[in-house]
Structure formats: C-alpha cells, structure tokens
Batch of 4 targets.
Target 1
Amino acid sequence: TALSAQPVLSLFGLYNWGTGLLFIAGLAGAWGLGVSVDAGSVDLVERALLAAVLVNALVALVQGAFSLNVSPLTRYEGRAAGLLSNPVHLATLTAGGLALVVPRVRGDHWRYGAATVLVAAALELSGSRFALVLAVVVAVVMVVRHRRAAVAGVGALVLGLLFGVAIGALGGATTGNGRVQAGGETVGVSARLRVWASAGHAVSEHPVLGAGPGRFRAATSPYRTLGLVRAEAPDRLFVDGHNVLVEYATTTGLVGVAAFVVWLALACRRSRGRLLGFFLLVLAMHLVAPQFVGTTPVALLALGVAGRAELPAFGRTAMVASFVVAIAALVAAGRLVWGDYELNNAVVDFRASSSRAAVAALPPWPEPAEAAGRVALFDSITTQSPQARRDALRWDRLAARRDPTDPLASTELAEAELYLGRPVEARRSFEHALLWDPWSVRALNGLANAALAGGERAAARRALQRSLQADPAQPKVRTQLRELQ
C-alpha cells in the first residue's frame, strides 16, 4: 500500500467497492472474531447466518414472481438480487447457504427440506450459471458421502431448482437454467478471460508487490483490448478481478497472493463442519465473481467459527485499547454514512449544499467532487452564472486530482472544459482519459468534438473511426463521420 502509486486510494479502495487495505484487514478481522467465539456460540452464529440466507431467499422469490418497481423488491437486469443489490452476490450467498441446509435435511426432513427448496429456488432466480454448477457439486458430494441417506436432501435441492424455474417463467424473470438454455451466453465468460489476460500484463509490470490493494482497475484498464470492449461494453470497466486469486496477484503481487493462499490453507486445515462448507462454496464463487462486503467478510467469519480456538481473555490494557479503537471506528463509520447520505442527495436532487458536504466528508474519493461538478455545470447551464462555471471546473479538476487513473473523472472534466469554451484543455483531458481506457467511446467522441472545435478535422475523423470500432451501433457518429469525409 505504501509503495503503490496512490497510497490513499490503495488504503481505502474505490468508493462503494472497498477492496483496499482496510477491506483486507476487515477480512482478517472477521476471521479473528470467528476464531474467538466460545463453544456455545458456534450454533448461534450458524443459525444467524442461515436466517440471513433465508431472508434474502424470500426476497428473491418475491422479485422473481413479481416485476415490482418498489425498492428493495426490484430486479437487477431481469434477475433477482435479494437484499444484496446484485444477483451475483445473491448467487454467492445462496450457493454457500446450500452447505447449511442440505446436510440438515437428514435429521429434519420437513423443516430443512423446505429451507433447501427456498434457498435453491433463490439460487436459480439469481441467474448464475456457475452457482448451478456448484449446486450439482453439492448434490454429488452428498450422494458420495451419505448414499441413500442423501436422497431427501438432494431431492429437495432439485425440487427447489425446478421451483425457481417455474417462478421465473411465471414472473418473467431471468433464471440460471434459462441462461444456460439460451446457448450458454459466453459473453460474460469471454469478458472475464480477457480481463484476466489484461491482469497478466499488470502482474508482469509489478510482479512482487503488485499495484496496491484496491488498484485492479488502474492496473488493468490501460491494457483493455477491442475484444474485451466488444465482449463487455464500452466504458464499462472491471474494478475487481472477478477472481480472488487474479485480484490479489494483480494488487498485492505474487508475494501477497502466496501469503493469502497459505493463510487460507492453514485456516481451512483447522476447520470442520457446515460452516467450512459455506466458506468453501463462497470461495468457489469468488473464482468467477467479485468480492463483496456483504458476503466475503461473512464467509471469513464462518471459516473462523468453523475452526474456533480457546483464547485467553483480554487484560485491562487490551480492553481499554479496544474500547478506544471501537469509538474511533464508530466515528469514522458515522462520517462515511453521513457522506454517503449527502452524496445521494446531491446525485438525486442536484443539491449544491449536499455535494459540498459530501466532498468534505469523503476526501479520498473523486465521486463526490464529480457530483459537485455536475451540479455546478447544470447550474451554469440554467443560470449562465460565471461563478457556477468556475465551480464546475474547480470540482471536476479536484475529482481528476483525487484519482488521476479514473477515466470517468478525466472525461467529465474534459466535457465541462469543452462546454465552457476551452477546447485545447478539453483535448488534453480527453487524451488523459484514453490513457486509462484506450477504447472509451465517450472519451473518443468527446476528443473528436474537441478536435473539431480546434479546426482539426483529421484528428476528429481518427477519433470517430476508433469510436465506431469500439461500438458500431452509433448512427449519429456514423453521420458525423460521413459529413467529415
């Protein structure tokens, strides 16, 4: 973290994502909390985790059955997401949840059979194909280990998957089975493979210590290829490796990923039971899905509880130190929540006072300054105020300084400069954005307009031609290019 190009962002991670050093420390802390529970709390933790899985599964069933436009019951791109904002995270949680419910069916057919049906149906409604593969693995493992005694659990699992398919068909939701029948939809797989290839370039550049925790996007985005843009989408960047090993190899280097693997191996070696199964299934999902604050630390907590140890109680000095640290953490968390609240107000209501408060409360990140810049630019458009114009440029420059590797921040600065009659500065900012996302359609189209404003038609043609390579479905750009030719 200290040796990364941006130590502050490497410490905190990207805004609203959180894969920086603090997130990694949180993973170790969650495991430590799990290890330190007393023997009587193991079952309590497992039941609490199971309750969380079932609550998310119930919400997912409502999302799959009804196309509601009421938060939190809305779908994400046609798929159920539970309370986790993204169906991939729901798939991760429910895949792990199978380890908590399927083995229990042998002892309580009706109650845990119903829970298995519910969890499996939610897994199906998440639309994740890899989670379906893991469900098959769970069924095979149960049959191999318990033979005829596993029939009830495996039957409930299959029934739940079919129930999810039926709900999806009735409610018009996208299911995992539906995505498989649609031909496998290799686009997502292709995009991941290409991102992992770009990560290989980044690892070769910083092989020992990596680019710094939380810096996956900055390390890999300059290596984006046309194939990746076509497979994923223009201006849609991977901020996480979607593979925990690729993520840490890129951000903490070969030393970091080796330490991570050894630590997990030792932790798993001392662990037993259903909670270990929960962790292993979540870890398997993390080979194709991003880490997430709602699943990854919980999985490490489960791993810790599965390998709990008898530890000595804290002494007086340690208790006082823990109390002081806890107070500081609560204050910091309160500031984060307040800043997030103000940022949301700025984005939704275009409220200038809220945007300024968010900039002050969330100093490491560019997003609050970007929001403040948009608010000020809108104000300058509606009022023609010279001060609003100056504010728009000031906030956008601050956002670009906070994260020079963020192509969106540089692009928004360039667009403001172009609108406010500064084409030379805009062109420089667009070119800087393209250093960090060479195939950004938004930056390429903006660069073309900046070049035209400066009378450079040839440069504009080159930018528009490259933009059409990235995204051929741009009729307005095609028309503009024909006029230039």
Note: The first helix runs from residue 7 to 12.
Target 2
Amino acid sequence: MIPYGTQDITEEDIAAVSETLRSDFLTQGPKVREFEAQLATYSGSQHALVCNSATSALHLACLALDLQPGDHLWTSPNSFVASANCGLYCGAEVSFVDIELNHLNICPVALEQKLIKARQANQLPKVLVAVHFAGQPCEMDTLQQLSREYGFRIIEDASHAIGSHYRSFKTGSNHFSDITVFSFHPVKIITSGEGGCALTNDPALDETMRQLQSHGITRDPHKISDPSEPWYYEQQALGFNYRMTDIHATLGLSQLQRVNRYIEQRHLIADLYDEQLQDLPLTLPSRNRDSLSSLHLYPIRLGNTASGISRKELFIRLREDGIGVNVHYIPIHYQPHYQKMGFKKGDYPNAEAYYSRAITIPLHPKLTESQITFVCERLRHHL
C-alpha cells in the first residue's frame, strides 16, 4: 500500500535518538529546550513551547488567552476535531465559519458577515482558530484586520503548515496572530513521533502556557511563598502534564534540519501531479502566489458529473489498487458530539460541498516517481 503520508526516518535520526537514550535525561532535559530554541529561530518567533501533541498546544493556547465558559471560539469546519475541541475543553461555546472553495480555508467574507450578526447579538468570539488547511496559509492580513475591528484573538492552527509563508512572513512568526501551533505527528511535514508546539511573541502568554503545561507548578523563587527552602515548589494553577520528552525532542531536532528539503520535495511531487492530472475531470489543489504552502496534503475533488464515478467507488477502487487514499476532512459539525450541540448538515455549504467530492492522494517525500506515475495512471483508468 502506498500511504497518503508517512514519516521519513533516517540513520541520522536513529543515531541522535540513540545518543539521547544513553544520556542522563530522557525527559525535562536539554534537548527539549534546544528544540524550542531552534523552532523559535526557524519560525522567527520570540518563544516556543514544545508539547506532547498539537492538541495539547491548542488547549494551552486557549487557556493562555483566558478562554472561559460563556466565551465563544470560532474555527473552520474543514479540519480535524482538535481545532474545535480545544474550545470545548475550556467550557466555551464553539461555532464555525464556512470556507472558501479555492484554498479551502476560512472565508474572510463569511467571517465578516458572521461577525456583524454576532456583534448585534452581543456574541462576538473571544478566539478565532485559523486553520491552514493542507499547509496553505489563511488570508491572515484580512483576519488580523477583522480581529482588530471586532476584538478577538487569533490562534493559527498551523498543524499542517510548518515552513509555509504568508506574503513575506513565515508561519510561526505570529506577525498576524497571538499564538501559532505546529504538529509533529508522523504524517506531518516533520515528526517527533507525537508532539506539537505553541509559538508566541508575548512573554506573558508563553509564561502562562509553560506553567500550565507542567501541572500549574512553579519553582521560580521570585513567585513562591517560601523561597528560602531550596526544594520548594508551588502549584499556583490547575495545570496538566503536556510535556514533551527529550527522546521526542531529539527526533524533532534531527528532522527540523531537513524541513526545507521536505517542502521542496513536496512541491516537486505536486508539480508532477499537476502536470499529469490537469486534463482529468478533477479540481486540483490551488496554490496562492502570495504565499508558500508546505503542501501537507494533496486533496483532489471529483467533477460533479463528468467523471462518471462516485467518490466512494473511486476511493474503494484506489484502495484495491494499493493506493492508500484518505479523505480530509469529515466536517467537524457532522460528528455526533457536535450534532448533539445543535449543529446539522447544511449549516456550512462550502465545507460540505468540498467534503462530498474530496479524496486525498499520496504526497510525502518518500514517494518515488514510478509510484507517482502509478497513482496518476490508476486515476486516469478509473475516470
């Protein structure tokens, strides 16, 4: 089976992790801080906090922005459930903004229309989670302008998008946002096994996330009630154990050295797909000339009638061919948990229209040219 995405583990990665396994620290050691420093430098951010997952990083980001019961968080329905669940973890009300059908991100026009109505109803969002779907950044300048006009904070869910750029600004620099989150799951651009990161330019936000990440505990002698005792620590808030280990951080450090090469390879593969699939009854992924996508995914969309085959039938046939296609994503508001909250099919027509026709075909640096040709030939045969 040719997977739609997979990790690329090299001998250098294995050697680095083996060295950490032989060291004095498996967790809460120097590799975690080194990984954070390099991520901050790479992304152009002042602070970086690595976590055990991007989901944990999203939760910490919401807490740092003081999202509470009675507040509202908005995000895209075209994402993995974690982009919305982080709001529920804080007791907030969650809602969605429909996508635009070009780059499949939050539609700024739909967002502004919803904000106008929300202001009239006194239900403006406190936080917007802007999802950079498939590695393509959202229209961040417009989202930032709206955030200033309507008073909400922005978290960039860049789980797909490390290494991407919006205009001249690298994702993670937080030029347009308060906090950016990366994912290092094995199918993402680089991996630490499991893992994530929250980046910010605000030292207060970083300090809050850092304390909540480790049980809400501080050992800072300037902040505890009895600094005379060298062993003393205090739990000053209800926190969590969202820490990353040095083992995972070491793998992430090693992979980070190749992130630009991985993105270049993804663009070369996407170029081959663009060339070989352009005459088929498909809508191919669109790349914005004003930005650089990290191309985490290559989702194609079937034509409405010209293809002569249903999405389900094509999905099954490609799987039978040994091509590990997938679908990204089932709209979050389709999920039973969200349906119980009152969401229903028909609420977000663009996200639903995209989902009804979408199939993700393989895209990762380990793909060979013969595998790419095989995928294209099987698509041509079935269509």
Note: DSSP finds 13 helices and 17 strands in the chain.
Target 3
Amino acid sequence: SVREGKVGRHEARDGATLAAAEVGIANTYWIADSDDRQATLVRCVSRCVARDGKIKQARWDFGDGLSATGNEVEHVFFRLGEPKVTLTVTDDKGRTDSVTLTPRIFQVDVVQQAFEFGNREQYAKAAADYDVAKMQRDDLRMYAAFWRDLEDAKQEVRAARAFVERFGDDAGAGTLAGSAAEAALKPQAYDPKAAADLLNKALDQSSEPRQKILLTLRLGHVTAWDLGQYDAAAAHFAKARQLLAKRRNEKAEALDHAALIGLGDVALLQGKLDEARKHYQQAEAGAKEDEPKRLARRGGYPYTIDDLLGRDQYDKAIEVLDEWEADFPTEKLDGLTLFLRGKTRFIQHPGEQALQYLTLSAQVAPRGLHVAEALWLRANCLLALDRPAQALEAFKRVQSDFTYTQYAIEAEAKIRQCQAKLQ
C-alpha cells in the first residue's frame, strides 16, 4: 500500500555537522500607498544535526543585509523576487556548515495560489528591531512606508532618518523626509525637534532645486509654529523666495504664495498683526480664480469642517483647514480657522499644539464669536497637560468673562478640581 514518507533525521555523508533548513512563506501584508505594496513574512526552521556533538549556533543571513540567530526565526521581506536565505551552523567543537534556500516571493494579486494575510501586530513585532544601518536602499524605503501605514511615527522617523543619511542623493529622499516629519508632528507622537532634524538632514543632502525649496518651506513652518524660532523661520521663507525668483512658472508662483503666507505666520505668531496682514494680502493678490467663485468656495469651508468633525474625520478636517488658510490666509486674523484647528487638535489629543492654536485664536480676535469656546477648551487643555495653576486661572476667567454661558456653569466643578490638585 502507498505510505507517506517523512524525513526523520538529516545526516551528513562526509562531515560531522550538517546544515539543513526549512524556509517557507507564512503570510503577506498589504502596505497602503507604496509601489509594491507588499511585505512578506517568511518562517525559517533549522533542522541541523551534529554527529558527535551539539549545535551551538544557528545564524541566518537573509540576503537583504539583515541577519538573525536561532533555531526558529521569522523575517519580514520588504521586496519581491527570490532572496537567498543562508543558514550557517556551528557545533560545540567549532565545526561549521552552510546551506542556502530561496523562497519565491511574488505579488499576491498576480498569483493564483491562495495566500494567508498577516496582521499589523504580527508584522510590527517581527520587524521592530531591524538594523536600518544595514538595510538596502529599496528595502529601507519600503520599511519606512510600512511604519507609515501602521501609523508608528517613531519607527517611521527612525527609518526615514537612516534613509536620508545613507541615500540622501536619492530622488525620493526629500519626500520620505517630509512624510516622516509630518508623522513626528502628529498630536499623539509630537516631536518637533525630530521633525526639524530630519528636514535639515534632507535639505543638506538634496541637490534637486525644487525639492530644496519644498524642504525649506516645510522647515520654515516647523521652525515657526512648533519650535518658536521666528528669526530662523523668517530666514527660511526668505531663502525660499530667493530660490523661487529664478524660476518663473505656475508651480513657482504657488510655492512663492506659500512662502508669503509663511512670512505672515511668523509675524502673526509675534503679535505683529499689521505686518502679517500685509504678507497675507500679498499672497491673496496672486489668486487667478474669479472672485464670485472664490467667495462661494470660502463660504463652504465652515460647513465642511463642521460636517467632518461631526463624523470624527479629524485628519480630513485638518486638510480642509490647510486648504482654507492657503486660499484665504487673511482669515487667520479673524481667529476662526485657528480656533477650528485648535478644537480639532484638542479632540484628537489635548496637547501643546491644541493649546497654541486655541490661545492664538483668542489673542488675534478677542471679540470673536468663537472666543468663549476657545478659552474653555484652552483651560481644559491646561488641565489635561497637568498645569493646575494655569488651568485654575483660565477657568476663573471663563467664569467671570462669560457669565451667562454653559461654560461658566461648568467651570465651577473644574475650578474645584484644579484646587484639589494644588493642595
């Protein structure tokens, strides 16, 4: 009768130690917004034996610059094709042997064979400690995209910084740095120094003119809004305008528009409202759209923001606010866009970013209709940041200045909470 045969033991014909292994694809993971869009988890098992001794070490080299040790290991490949996985074993008498296997990794959408799909936690655990100093260029690029997909800002910044330092001449280095800088500025992982450092490194390495301008503008924004270094920020925006003066086309005009707004922001943050208005008006003067269309579009922004906040689409709300302030920068001086940005950030995470926008929105337009809610949210933000003395003063102001509002009524309990923290 037909019987199933299985390998019971591997033995070397001519040696005392034999390297034998099993290497197979465990599952795949789809990475959003990347070129190949696929990471692949490969499981490697050592079946090595020593005839008259014991196996002391099993070392795996995965053909992508990375390695691991252990009888059973998992490795995530950020590439397609046929990588060469080499197992080298050493026994307790110093004898070694090696074997190379080649798993075949294809894009899952062009293969008929059924594939299992891995989960985020499994892949994050397997790839968390990769040595970014040893990863190859395209693997490292995909590695950064992988962490962006998982919304892990620290890991994305780590990968992007390594890419910029090692492959700064790559055409995509600036884009990678910009994306990672944005991740470092998200409320849940707010680290503006890391963002500025990454942008500076990318700027030093970049040789492509337009990319240098984009990085300079982004660095100016971070330096002004997140680090409070106003002279340095103004210098970045002025430098961008100098570089743009040599380029005359629509794209250059759009970037010059952004630089003018940046200079206005620097003045706004310093309380120089007339100077800010001058820069904002100069930026708006370049608009080519018909005025009726512009005004109609402007009228729709508040309703869109309100709808997005009602549906908990906070990142999209920030995108619309970016568009609103780019089209109508002078409206920052009315405080409403600053308030809505601060409110959105507060809902996401009551941290430093929310506090900055809420405070500024009340300062630039102290009689605005939004001020009562802005100061209420600001006081709650201070409390969430564990600054009870400042929060107490803020809640008392809400109670005294907005007597007939719901905020004044609710402030009493908050005041007692702050006093308890201070005792």
Note: The chain has 16 helices and nine strands.
Target 4
Amino acid sequence: MELPKVSVIISTKNEEKNIKNCIRSIKNQTYPSEKIELIVVDNSSNDRTKEIARKFTKKLYSIEKEVDLSKVKNFRGTQLNFGVEKSSGTIIFFPDADMTFDEDIIEEAVNLLKKYDALYVPEVVIGKGFFGKIRNFERSFYNQTCIDAVRFVKRDLFFRVGGFDEKNIVFGPDDWDFTKRVKNETSKLSITESNIFHHEEHLNYKTYLEKKKKYANNFEGYIQKWEKDDKEVKKQLSPYYRLLGVFVENGKWRNLIKNPILTMCMFFIRLNVAVNYLMNILQNNNRVRENENI
C-alpha cells in the first residue's frame, strides 16, 4: 500500500528566529521525505523569515499578495486555509512556526489516522529558567482537553468542516473553533505519544500576562458564534474549570501533589491571568455602556 502524503502548513509572520529550527525538525522526520509536503504561508514579514524558508521549500506564499486581507478577521486562519488549498496531501498537519517535533511524529500520526480522523499532540513547553518549568507543568494538564486543539486532520474532514473561520473568529480561539467543528463532525479523535516542543524562551512572567490579556480581547467573536450557553464554551471559559477542574480531572490531581512548589506557583499565575481576564471583561462592558449613552 502506498504511503499517504502529509502536507505540513506553517503560517508565519516575522519568525526568523524560529522558522529554520521548525523546518529542520520537519526535514528530519523518520517518515519518507518525498511523502512530506512543506508549505509556508507568510503574512507581511519584514525580517528574514521568507529568505530562510525559501531555502527549504519552493512552496512559499505571501498571503497579502494572494488574498484581500481587509475582508478577513483571522489572518492565521486565512493563511492556513490558503495553504491547504495549495496542498495535495491527504493528511494535514498544522504546527506553529515556533515549534519543533519528535522525529517520528508524522510517522506515528499516519499510522493512527488509519483508525482516527484527527489527532491532538502533547505539547512540551521549552522556556527559560523556573518560569519555563512552571509553564511546561501547566501545559501538561491541557493535553486532549477542551482547552487543547487538534494538530493533524484528514484532508476530506478539513473541507467538510469548512476549514478555519476567517470572518468571525480572530487569532486565539480560532483553533478552538476549528476543533469544535471537527468534534461535531466525528468522534474518532486520538492523541499521539510523540511530542511537539513549543519554544517560549522569549516569554517571562510579564510578557506571558500581556500575551494572555491580548488573547482575552479575542474571545467575543467565538462566544457570539457558539453562544454562552454552549456546554463546551462554558467549560472553556469557566473560572472553576480553568482554575481548578482541568488540573484535577481524571486523576491529574496526583501530579499536583507530587510537585507542590510548581503547583503553588502555577496557581498564582493562573489566578493573575483570571483576574486580568475579568478586569478586561469589565472594561469592555464599561466601554459598551459609554458608547450606548453617547
């Protein structure tokens, strides 16, 4: 039986510090290289991202030259959708540009997708110092939960669910939205044993909170699309689940007990993220009231 082609779609914007390592990690896969199609879709990078990517693949596109971006909200989703349109693989893989991978991740995914339709991938955070350890500890609780998102999907399923939402959802919850539609279409989901390594060496406590605050501004379209009463949306945004539930479900509480210092530090950070999120909601509500009174 002929092996299926896997299309790896990477969206980029000013990723010169990461793109080489990401692509090399794809090139070093145990899966036959002739069966891996690498597509990079860039969005107006003004650094060396495109120059570096061009050394590894002929399939490099500049989305601003291909699509009228004034008509879309979700640039990353637009990049990924465009990449899939230009691809020919029967399996699609969506890594971020700041990620590297176990060398057998594609081989394992291909084998699993003989039985399943889409796959989560465990994520290992590579960060600096003790804060990096806290982030990796936190992220380990999210694998294959409603906070996680699929990374591999069969091509036909991608088109059945309509790809990424370009017009209603912005960067942040766009992968939740895509995964939600995948789960509505099929129950055949699984998770690999191979890992993704997410390189967050540039993040510290302050920049992490700023990043989360930025994401918090992007949830409105997602909530409006699925409505607040949607069971999964309520869980994803639930203070209880995000602050406690996801860390104790399915016996994961044992890991908290084994790592008391990391646990305390993680909950301190999560509490700060939650406070910032709630303050952001209050500020947005106040702006709405002010505009209504004008």
Note: Strands lie at 6-12, 36-42, 60-62, 91-93, 99-101, 118-120, 123-126, 152-154, 189-191, 196-199.
